[in-house]
TrEMBL record:
The lineage of its organism: Bacteria, Bacillati, Actinomycetota, Actinomycetes, Micrococcales. Coiled coil: none annotated. This is Glutamate decarboxylase. Signal peptide: none annotated. It catalyses: L-glutamate + H(+) = 4-aminobutanoate + CO2. The modification N6-(pyridoxal phosphate)lysine is found at residue 279. The keyword Lyase applies. It is an enzyme of class 4 (lyase). Belongs to the group II decarboxylase family. GO terms for biological process: L-glutamate catabolic process. Its EC number is 4.1.1.15.
Length: 466
């Protein structure tokens, strides 16, 4: 049959209407990579190009390196698409979204045992990094105000934190001229636990950061022990040093899975707490929350009264225009899941983490660092003496062949010679997927153990950033 008869048979008269889409004129045209194309393309064509390139990123559900959520239900996705155009900062135009933001941080303040929700203050942020920046700024400003009131210098403020702290705190100290005093972790002290704290604090210390879920390993830092150490320091020296709890992950795990653990506003020394809603808050990126214990813990001169589009509004943020959709998604989840639902979701993730750590711990090749019983995150080392033919970087590469992203990286300074691998279990990693992962890890180990000569180590560096 000729082309003409074929067209007559199908009723197609124009190549732009050909099906499948890839036969459309211009579909195979190369778009410039670094300049805006000179002309338009069909929306379907542009969509297909972007869609196909994004496929090269891999399957986000198999990315066990990230804490960031990768799944929400269809109703949440519908809310997302319906509210993607809302600018959260425009509270005069979107007053209901602003009211929902306030409801959310008050719910979270209650979850964190704020002494009186009506006399506390909070805000949403783009993520937990911005929330940490705001928490740190409040600590610095309170310290400055107290020093000025006493007629003392406000030069050389410092902040005490673990050497395993997330990089956002390094940024805070760099950007706002605060000396970072890192307490090194070790095999004996695997987290900042309050021991020897008095050698790091002085009259210029604006605060101590306690982490509920260290990014390297997922372990909780014992906030109550840190507070007790600071109580003892105050009794001895008179230094009254507040705590900011970086609850990026644990802030939305501990209230549900470890409700009796005292880490939050039940400790009077805790001035502020931050969390990442797009981690175990279960929202798509990016959303964070920060709450201060009382109104006095957030210096009022940090809050701006902004006239915007005909209305007045308070603003305390590093960003001005911000998406409102994620706030609505958080509110949806609070309504959809409630306390019991959040418990079940987080418990399911923890159960999978404990299963995985147990199975990996049984393998002679590995020694666990922790078991995923704090947040659903755990890390392991290569057992000393197991092999001289491969290392955890090689294992990471083998698992990537199957689509699994499980990073290998060195631990912080002081134990940087130690390399670990870490798995983050999030909502969406089912027990069935976990069982498949164990089979793939065992298969990779068997392959590597069977090597007759060492794997090359040139170029094996960690590109993973915490």
């Amino acid at each position: 049959m000729t082309d003409q008869s074929s067209h007559a048979f199908t009723g197609i008269s124009d190549s732009n209407q050909l099906n499948p889409l890839f036969a459309r004129a211009g579909e195979s045209t190369d778009f410039p990579l670094n300049t805006i194309p000179p002309g338009e393309s069909l929306p379907e064509t542009a969509y297909q190009v972007v869609h196909d390139e994004a496929m090269l990123d891999g399957n986000s559900r198999l990315n066990l390196a990230t804490f960031v959520g990768t799944w929400m239900d269809p109703q949440a996705q519908q809310i997302y698409s319906e509210s993607a155009d809302k600018n959260l900062v425009d509270k005069d135009e979107y007053p209901q979204t602003a009211a929902i933001e306030t409801r959310c941080w008050k719910m979270i303040a209650t979850l964190w045992n704020a002494p009186d929700v009506e006399t506390t203050i909070g805000t949403s942020t783009i993520g937990s990094s911005e929330a940490c920046m705001l928490g740190g700024l409040a600590l610095k400003r309170r310290w400055q105000q107290a020093r000025r009131a006493d007629g003392k210098s406000t030069e050389k403020p410092n902040l005490v934190l673990s050497s395993a702290v997330q990089v956002c705190w390094e940024k805070f100290c760099n950007y706002w001229d605060v000396e970072a005093r890192y307490v090194p972790i070790s095999d004996e002290h695997r987290v900042l636990d309050g021991s020897d704290l008095k050698t790091y604090v002085d009259e210029n210390t604006i605060g101590v950061v306690a982490i509920m879920g260290v990014t390297y390993t997922g372990m909780y830092e014992p906030v109550a022990d840190i507070a007790a150490a600071l109580d003892a320091i105050q009794a001895e020296t008179g230094l009254d040093i507040p705590i900011h709890v970086d609850g990026a992950s644990g802030g939305m795990i501990a209230p549900f899975l470890q409700p009796d653990l005292v880490w939050d506003f039940r400790l009077e020394r805790v001035a502020s707490i931050s969390t990442s809603a797009h981690k175990y808050g279960l929202v798509y990126p990016g959303l964070g929350w920060v709450v201060w214990r009382t109104l006095d813990d957030l210096p009022r001169d940090l809050v701006f009264d902004v006239t915007y589009l005909g209305g007045h509004m308070p603003s305390f943020a590093l960003n001005f225009s911000r998406p409102g959709a994620q706030v609505l998604l958080q509110y949806y989840l609070f309504l959809r899941l409630g306390y019991d639902g959040y418990y079940r979701v987080q418990k399911a993730s923890q159960d999978v983490a404990v299963y995985l750590s147990g199975e990996i711990g049984k393998m002679p090749a590995f020694t666990l660092w922790n078991e995923g019983t704090d947040i659903p995150v755990f890390a392991w080392q290569l057992t000393k003496g197991h092999t001289d033919r491969w290392n955890l970087y090689h294992l990471s590469e083998r698992l990537r062949i199957k689509g699994w992203l499980i990073p290998a990286y060195p631990m912080p300074d002081n134990i940087s010679e130690m390399v670990v691998q870490r798995i983050v279990v999030r909502n969406g990693l089912s027990r069935n997927l976990a069982e498949s992962l164990i089979l793939d890890i065992q298969e990779a180990v068997d392959y590597l153990d069977a090597l007759e000569s060492p794997m090359p180590t040139e170029g094996l560096i960690s590109t993973f950033t915490h």
